[in-house]
């Protein structure tokens, strides 16, 4: 609870209500008496309530269910994908095929993650026609692709160019070329082994050198993928009992089904196990043999280039291949795409919030906020008015409540609705938790005016019940403290509990938990008002519903008011 | 020009009140200012030790050069932006009055031995920085709001990125980039490519030319 005192959290009962219904369904026997469920007070210290309390600003409101909707009881749906760097929308088909990274020129620095620029390497004394070779460079930490010896010919289509250049400037083969190359080399290997068998010694130096260099991550993957594909293809037709063969009209499966039912033959030819797949046997098939010399080389490299040539875990994990170790293996990281999301009510699937689909716009088409439907509760300390002439007393310290000394607070409800509401507040007389504070709402039932136009109030010269200034009103049970156009405030008396008793008991194993000294008051709020029948509902029941018909509405929810911290005496 | 006592314009030429206020401050005993220097209005040069400013340097309005404790030398093409402060001891007044949280530099008595501040060719000191360094090498950039402690020696083509703080007596080799939470790395790109360095310097001279067109020059106030 990092928010500063005093605060108000609203409870969304989405989990509890669901659990209750499930329990009721599962056990038709009376597991819990209904009354118990109703009479239970909300405990803000319950571990579960941690997940149901939200500030009012975080909540949405479903007009159809007429309930608050918290982040747990909304469904999010992705409207579109876009790159946060170039603000271009990426179609979802491209996201599926190419992954969730920008395929334009948006790259982040692998060292410090700031967005990189395409900049020219042109020599000012010897300008080239095209503007010179280009590099990606980081404007913040000054890393550039030049450090991994990558230069680009054009300043556009960086992704396509980057995918063709390995670190060090060597070209990367495309998938097709790789396949062709692999086939060619396999052919060579076969011939060579035949040659060895026949006894004619060929000088293997050229090939030896080629196989010496460690294949790249991508190369390995494609080799492995090709190998297993060929293995699968080799096995499936030969094995009629393979689970891949789910073709009921084929004779093999037909015979298998027959076997299932005939008890005599089944045991005999039961299940010749499919021959296990051959493992990879050469580099061309994706086999990598750990070479201790690479480790030695790595150690030697650290010794020579120092610690700064190695990567931090964060830098490694951001890389496409997280197994690299040295800064010379870094690749620019393509920008991750972002999404725009709409939110729906989990119960009725109505849209609660929907942003405009245009990427550059930050506005919303639909946005049903709890702010506009639920009254806002706010608390502040009631301080005795300073006597004229004396300097103003220091502001009330919410983080130093004094145990046992009654303190008055003003609880104010502001009504966002366009109809006046009747409010009933309820709170347990002592707060739950180990530190028990006594709480009394002096006026638990009152009315709050409608959220009318600001000027209505000012223009209507009729005698309004609004009292001017709270100073004249007295703290009296059953009377509101103050009232305005669309707000009413009442007084709460709080006697903060004692921490001392607990400290005395600590020897018996009772220990003060973290934040146990925070004074939080659960307040149950019930609202009643008369509202115009919903436009949609009116449309539905057109035959019987007349325009201007009003219906009674009711709403009830728990809130938790954080008053402050009780100070140790 | 070198040892003129209290060079200042005569009272009748002064128009604004701010200039009057500036002129109350102690004047450097000797100032060597190249005639091609651009010193904007409201730039402040104070202190008793000599201040030397090389050709084509640019001092933006409200920057402060202080030679109260030690001499200051600005090389050719140095650009000092608004509210930047250069000179040994210039951050101290600040540290005591405003930023008590900044790590205090070793007592100012020790720092008196410092020989002054030397900014090399084409050094850029950006807005709101405090530079008390002993030396900054050619082509280095000190970005916005950075603080460079006393006795720092910074090499050529270094970049001190925004809001970095260099503790006193730091030595940075050439091409160092200080970024993030005092992380350092070597800018191999600029190091390996002299043509990039050259391009950078060319851009710098072009920028100075534009400054000379845009910013009214008030250098006569300090040279006459």
From TrEMBL, chain A:
Keyword field contains Phosphoprotein: yes
Ranges for region Disordered: 28-48, 169-215
Any single GO CC term annotated in Swiss-Prot or TrEMBL for this entry: dynactin complex
Pfam families (alphabetical): Dynactin_p62 (PF05502)
Basic and acidic residues: bias regions: 175-195
InterPro entries noted in UniProt: DCTN4
Record text on subunit structure and interactions: Subunit of dynactin, a multiprotein complex part of a tripartite complex with dynein and a adapter, such as BICDL1, BICD2 or HOOK3. The dynactin complex is built around ACTR1A/ACTB filament and consists of an actin-related filament composed of a shoulder domain, a pointed end and a barbed end. Its length is defined by its flexible shoulder domain. The soulder is composed of 2 DCTN1 subunits, 4 DCTN2 and 2 DCTN3. The 4 DCNT2 (via N-terminus) bind the ACTR1A filament and act as molecular rulers to determine the length. The pointed end is important for binding dynein-dynactin cargo adapters.
Name of the protein described by the UniProt record: Dynactin subunit 4
Organism phylogeny: Eukaryota, Fungi, Dikarya, Ascomycota, Pezizomycotina
TrEMBL record, chain B:
GO molecular function: dynein complex binding
Entry GO terms, CC: dynactin complex
Any one Pfam family match given in the protein's UniProt record, by short name: DCTN5
Protein localization: Cytoplasm, Cytoskeleton
BP term (GO), one: mitotic spindle organization
Top-level division of the source organism's lineage: Eukaryota
Major subcellular site: cytoplasm
Entry keywords, A to Z: Cytoplasm, Cytoskeleton
Record keyword Iron-sulfur present: no
Gene3D superfamilies given in the database record: Hexapeptide repeat proteins
Main function: Part of the dynactin complex that activates the molecular motor dynein for ultra-processive transport along microtubules.
Family membership: Belongs to the dynactin subunits 5/6 family. Dynactin subunit 6 subfamily.
Protein name: Dynactin subunit 6
Species the sequence originates in: Polyplosphaeria fusca
């Amino acid at each position: 609870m990092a928010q500063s005192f005093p605060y108000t959290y609203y409870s969304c009962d989405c989990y509890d209500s669901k659990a209750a219904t499930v329990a009721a369904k599962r056990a038709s026997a009376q597991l819990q008496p209904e009354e118990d469920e109703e009479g239970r007070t909300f405990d803000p210290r319950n571990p579960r309530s941690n997940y149901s309390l939200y500030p009012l600003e975080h909540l949405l409101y479903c007009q159809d269910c007429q309930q608050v909707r918290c982040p747990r009881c909304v469904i999010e749906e992705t409207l579109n994908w876009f790159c946060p760097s170039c603000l271009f929308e990426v179609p979802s088909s491209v996201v599926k095929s190419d992954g969730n990274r920008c395929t334009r020129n948006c790259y982040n620095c692998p060292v410090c993650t700031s967005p990189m620029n395409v900049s020219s390497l042109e020599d000012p004394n010897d300008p080239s026609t095209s503007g010179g070779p280009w590099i990606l460079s980081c404007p913040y930490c000054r890393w550039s692709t030049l450090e991994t010896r990558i230069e680009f010919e054009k300043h556009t289509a960086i992704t396509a160019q980057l995918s063709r250049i390995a670190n060090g400037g060597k070209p990367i083969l495309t998938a097709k070329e790789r396949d062709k190359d692999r086939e060619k080399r396999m052919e060579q290997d076969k011939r060579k082994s035949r040659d060895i068998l026949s006894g004619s010694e060929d000088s293997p130096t050229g090939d030896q050198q080629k196989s010496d260099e460690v294949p790249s991550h991508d190369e390995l993957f494609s080799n492995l993928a090709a190998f297993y594909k060929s293995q699968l293809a080799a096995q499936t037709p030969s094995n009629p009992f393979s689970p891949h063969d789910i073709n009921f009209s084929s004779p093999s499966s037909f015979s298998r089904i027959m076997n299932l039912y005939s008890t005599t033959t089944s045991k005999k030819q039961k299940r010749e196990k499919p021959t296990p797949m051959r493992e990879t046997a050469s580099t061309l098939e994706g086999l990598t043999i750990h070479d201790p010399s690479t480790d030695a080389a790595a150690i030697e490299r650290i010794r020579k280039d120092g610690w700064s040539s190695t990567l931090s875990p964060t830098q490694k994990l951001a890389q496409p291949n997280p197994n690299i170790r040295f800064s010379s293996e870094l690749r620019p990281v393509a920008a991750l795409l972002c999404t725009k999301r709409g939110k729906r009510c989990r119960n009725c699937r109505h849209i609660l919030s929907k942003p405009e689909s245009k990427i550059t716009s930050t506005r919303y088409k639909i946005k049903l906020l709890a702010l506009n439907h639920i009254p806002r509760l706010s608390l502040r300390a009631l301080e005795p008015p300073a006597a004229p002439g004396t300097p103003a007393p220091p502001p009330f310290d919410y983080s130093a409540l004094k145990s046992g000394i009654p303190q008055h607070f003003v609880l104010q409800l502001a009504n966002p609705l366009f109809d006046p509401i009747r409010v009933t507040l309820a709170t347990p007389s002592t707060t739950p938790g180990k530190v028990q504070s006594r709480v009394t709402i002096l006026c638990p039932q009152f009315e709050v005016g409608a959220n009318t136009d600001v000027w209505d109030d000012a223009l209507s010269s009729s005698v309004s019940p609004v009292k001017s200034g709270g100073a004249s009103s007295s703290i009296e049970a059953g009377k509101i403290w103050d009232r305005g156009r669309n707000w009413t405030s009442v007084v709460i008396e709080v006697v903060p509990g004692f921490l001392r008793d607990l400290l005395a008991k600590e020897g018996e194993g009772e220990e003060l938990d973290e934040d146990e000294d925070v004074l939080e008051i659960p307040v149950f709020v019930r609202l009643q008002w008369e509202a115009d029948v919903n436009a949609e509902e009116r449309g539905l029941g057109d035959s019987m519903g007349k325009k201007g018909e009003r219906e009674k509405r009711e709403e009830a929810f728990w809130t938790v008011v954080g008053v402050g911290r009780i100070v140790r005496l | 020009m070198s040892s003129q006592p209290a060079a200042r314009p005569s009272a009748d030429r002064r128009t604004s009140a701010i200039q009057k206020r500036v002129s109350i401050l102690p004047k450097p005993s000797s100032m060597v200012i190249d005639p091609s220097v651009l010193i904007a209005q409201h730039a402040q040069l104070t202190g008793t030790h000599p201040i030397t400013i090389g050709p084509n340097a640019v001092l933006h309005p409200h920057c402060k050069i202080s030679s109260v404790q030690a001499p200051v030398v600005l090389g050719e093409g140095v650009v000092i932006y608004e509210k930047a402060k250069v000179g040994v001891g210039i951050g101290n007044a600040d540290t005591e009055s405003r930023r008590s949280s900044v790590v205090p530099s070793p007592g100012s008595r020790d720092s008196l031995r410092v020989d002054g501040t030397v900014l090399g060719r084409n050094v850029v000191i950006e807005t709101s920085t405090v530079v008390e360094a002993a030396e900054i090498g050619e082509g280095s950039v000190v970005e916005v709001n950075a603080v460079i402690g006393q006795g720092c020696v910074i090499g050529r083509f270094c970049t001190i990125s925004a809001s970095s703080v260099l503790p006193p007596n730091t030595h940075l080799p050439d091409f160092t980039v200080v970024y993030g939470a005092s992380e350092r790395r070597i800018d191999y790109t600029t190091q390996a490519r002299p043509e990039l360095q050259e391009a950078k310097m060319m851009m710098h001279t072009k920028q100075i030319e534009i400054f000379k067109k845009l910013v009214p020059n008030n250098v006569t106030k300090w040279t006459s």
